[in-house]
Design brief:
The protein is α/β, with parallel strands linked by helices. Helices cover 42% and strands 21% of the residues. Strand 6, helix 6 and strand 7 form a beta-alpha-beta unit. The structure holds ligand C2E and calcium ion (3 copies).
């Protein structure tokens, strides 16, 4: 409760109280929800332009609660970062993803799965071992798994060596890394310079105004050219229209993802057929 002694509590609006309250409830319920299978993973396809096929699905976490409704990752991840449950959530999502990727691999399907993670998780010296344990347990080849790294939660300079080491060891095992939300953070170039990244995802904010703002178009053109010169595989996210799709194809993007290609869906609903 916020109370600075002088009856100031009333200065907080009713709306702010509601937000604080919801946040507190989410925080409080999270562990039990995780232990009682209220967390789910949905998968969104990524369409590779050269092959004309969906070559990857991105795992996205969901939490459905009777009282709170759907709690989105944007709401729950920052709280999980604070209460420490981010590690358990990360392990849950990876285990689900690896189980599915192992099944697909067994069936002879060449489709990878990517898992979102904050770069800070890799500062933990045990991260590599934890990932390898889950891949072994699920019999998932490391080459079927990818991590999408965000810079939302920046790391400290002294953590860098450990992060690079953990990532390189996983990369040697066959895991790939994509830099997520490219262009939105202040550290994109630093990450590109030091981390073993082979792919880049251009953030949705740039795709949103791609076909309406000439400036954005120039910016995305430049990003693609620059990333190509670095030898990176370029994915555009948040593609919602045919116009965006066509333009990105013309500009030389390697892959597209977004509602135009497919929504995030439960694994049981995934059907393997060509999109065009
Ligand atoms: P992101 O990695 O940039 O993922 C893309 C987000 O945009 C997803 O939202 C996706 O459902 C949504 N999206 C995809 N295509 C379109 C489109 O065409 N139009 C619109 N309007 N939206 C689209 P979501 O699932 O709510 O996830 C939000 C963010 O939360 C993700 O952003 C990611 O950074 C984070 N996140 C999701 N799952 C996890 C997870 O398991 N672990 C961690 N650490 N973060 C996660
Ligand atoms: Ca992502
Ligand atoms: Ca792979
Ligand atoms: Ca994004």
């Amino acid at each position: 409760v916020i109370n600075n002694g002088g009856g100031k509590i009333s200065s907080l609006s009713a709306a702010s109280h509601k937000v604080l309250n919801r946040r507190a409830i989410i925080d409080q319920k999270m562990l039990s929800a995780l232990n009682h299978q209220s967390f789910k993973v949905v998968y969104q396809p990524q369409f590779d332009l050269a092959s004309g096929e969906v070559t990857l699905y991105e795992a996205l976490v969901r939490w459905e609660d009777e009282d709170l409704g759907t709690i989105t990752p944007d709401e729950l991840i920052p709280i999980a970062e604070e209460n420490g449950l981010i590690h358990d959530i990360g392990a849950f999502v990876l285990e689900e993803a690896a189980t599915l990727a192992a099944r697909w691999n067994e069936q002879g399907r060449h489709v990878d799965i990517s898992v979102n993670t904050s770069v800070r998780e890799f500062s933990n010296a045990q991260m590599k071992n934890k990932v390898i344990d889950i891949l072994n347990k699920t019999k998932c080849p490391p080459s079927c798994i990818q991590f999408e790294i965000t810079e939302k939660f920046a790391f400290q300079a002294e953590e860098e060596n450990s992060i690079v080491l953990q990532m390189k060891e996983l990369q040697d095992a066959g895991v790939e890394f994509a830099l997520d939300d490219f262009g939105t953070g202040y550290a994109s170039f630093r990450y590109m310079q030091h981390l073993p990244i082979t792919k880049v995802k251009i953030d949705k904010v740039f795709i949103d105004s791609l076909t309406t703002q000439p400036k954005t178009q120039k910016l995305v053109e430049g990003m693609i050219r620059f990333c190509k010169s670095m030898g990176l595989y370029i994915i555009a996210e948040g593609v919602e229209t045919k116009e965006q799709y066509k333009l990105l194809e013309k500009m030389g993007a390697d892959a597209v993802q977004g509602h135009y290609i497919g929504m995030p869906i439960p694994s049981n609903d995934i059907q393997f057929k060509d999109i065009k």
